[in-house]
Automatic annotation (TrEMBL):
<keyword id="KW-0067">ATP-binding</keyword>
<dbReference type="Pfam" id="PF00005">
    <property type="entry name" value="ABC_tran"/>
</dbReference>
<dbReference type="InterPro" id="IPR050166">
    <property type="entry name" value="ABC_transporter_ATP-bind"/>
</dbReference>
<keyword id="KW-0547">Nucleotide-binding</keyword>
<dbReference type="InterPro" id="IPR003593">
    <property type="entry name" value="AAA+_ATPase"/>
</dbReference>
<dbReference type="InterPro" id="IPR003439">
    <property type="entry name" value="ABC_transporter-like_ATP-bd"/>
</dbReference>
<feature type="domain" description="ABC transporter">
    <location>
        <begin position="4"/>
        <end position="236"/>
    </location>
</feature>
<protein>
    <submittedName>
        <fullName>ABC transporter related protein</fullName>
    </submittedName>
</protein>
<dbReference type="GO" id="GO:0005524">
    <property type="term" value="F:ATP binding"/>
</dbReference>
<keyword id="KW-0813">Transport</keyword>
<dbReference type="InterPro" id="IPR027417">
    <property type="entry name" value="P-loop_NTPase"/>
</dbReference>
<dbReference type="GO" id="GO:0016887">
    <property type="term" value="F:ATP hydrolysis activity"/>
</dbReference>
Length: 247
């Protein structure tokens, strides 16, 4: 595992010679093995931060470093994986093969089948292992995408609204499963969502973005699994909603 230390991070895009400051002076420390959710209105810079963290974009200024990285990984070789809103599975591969794809560098076929089988089990996909993406539901496809990520054994998992396209029932189920996976695996998870309830249900901290800046960092010191109907949950949710809506 690894945590992240972000110092003075800025990202400017240029659209038709007009500069857009997507992120300005972001300072954030995310501890190893913690679950952090990022919320904020559309265009506040959440996805840009994830893209910088996984190297899909270069920062204009500032730096990102890793905290307590795994000893067996060389510095700079931390494993970061990203899960998007859409599962991005390969349609010509089965559920099992899509997950195994994360292990294409692994030489030992037994290790591949053991790892894939473990996560197929954990995610309730065993019965569908031979199905193709077009033959499974959106929830199962997103579980397969998460399974592929877990097979890769990343130090840090970035999630960009991974449950955003699912129906409310499937979404609630997957939120609960994600908490269980987090408690079992203790990976560092950085999760972007527009849904404040989801952010409070999942995160140990909710970081609020506005106009490319962090405007508040709210600790959520409630035990898992959380009850969204409890007064403590309600109070934190209202506080965050107030900041996001600028009330
Ligand atoms: N590739 C790009 N080129 C130019 N501008 C970009 C690019 N990506 C993002 N931006 C701009 O950066 C700003 C932040 O965008 P970003 O996607 O990070 O916001 P967000 O908070 O993730 O929004 P949403 O919740 O809608 O996904 C926006 O003004 C957006 O137009």
């Amino acid at each position: 595992m690894a945590g992240v230390n972000i110092k003075g991070l800025c990202k400017t895009y240029t659209i038709h010679s007009q500069e857009v400051q997507a992120l300005s002076n972001i300072n954030l420390t995310i501890q190893d093995g913690s679950f952090v959710t990022l919320v904020g209105k559309s265009g506040s810079g959440k996805t840009t931060l994830l893209r910088l963290l996984c190297g899909l974009e270069q920062a204009t200024q500032g730096e990102i470093s890793f905290l307590s990285p795994k000893k067996e990984r060389a510095v700079g070789k931390e494993r970061i994986s990203i899960v998007f809103q859409e599962p991005r599975l390969m349609p010509w591969l089965t559920v099992e093969q899509n997950m195994a794809f994360a292990l294409f560098k692994e030489k030992d076929p037994l290790r591949v089948s053991r790892t894939v089988s473990h996560f197929l089990d954990m995610l309730g996909l065993k019965k569908f292992k031979d199905a193709y993406p077009a033959q499974i539901s959106g929830g199962m496809a997103q579980r397969t995408s998460l399974g592929r990520t877990l097979c890769y054994d990343p130090d840090i998992i970035l999630m960009d609204e991974p449950l955003g396209a699912l129906d409310a029932f499937t979404r609630k189920n997957l939120q609960a499963e994600l908490v269980e996976i987090f408690l079992l695996q203790k990976k560092t998870i950085i999760f972007v969502t527009h849904d404040v309830d989801e952010a409070v249900f999942l995160g140990q901290r909710v970081v609020i973005f506005e106009g490319g800046k962090i405007v508040e960092d709210v600790p959520v010191s409630l035990n898992y699994p959380r009850n969204p109907l409890s007064p403590d949950f309600f109070q934190i949710r209202e506080r965050i909603l107030g900041v996001v809506l600028g009330e």
